């Protein structure tokens, strides 16, 4: 047996090749919930890169029931829990604003009334 027989044989990969810089940039994107290389998850049509704002860490206290529900929702959707919380907050804000705008005598807080 020759030493060349002991060499690890390279297998063809279906994954696209990427540089170290691309991988590092994608790690930053992953932290923002927008991975491009390391994730197989496809970006949804309603997700727009141009509308993303800088993120800040926040700490919240949740009940065990809320944590379990959030875990279940994350597993069902395949989305990060922090992203789900952001989406739920935005949706709740929209619902409350819509309800308030339909109250008689209410003024729109944005000043566009």
From TrEMBL:
<protein>
    <submittedName>
        <fullName>Replication protein RepA</fullName>
    </submittedName>
</protein>
């Amino acid at each position: 047996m020759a030493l060349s027989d002991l060499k690890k044989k390279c297998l063809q990969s279906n994954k696209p090749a990427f540089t170290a810089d691309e991988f590092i940039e994608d790690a930053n994107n992953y932290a923002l919930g927008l991975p491009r290389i390391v994730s197989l998850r496809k970006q949804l049509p309603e997700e727009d890169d141009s509308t993303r704002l800088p993120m800040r860490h926040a700490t919240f206290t949740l009940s065990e029931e809320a944590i379990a529900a959030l875990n279940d929702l994350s597993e069902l959707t395949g989305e990060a829990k922090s992203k789900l919380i952001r989406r739920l907050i935005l949706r709740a804000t929209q619902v409350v604003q819509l309800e308030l705008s339909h109250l008689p005598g209410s003024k729109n807080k944005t000043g566009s009334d």
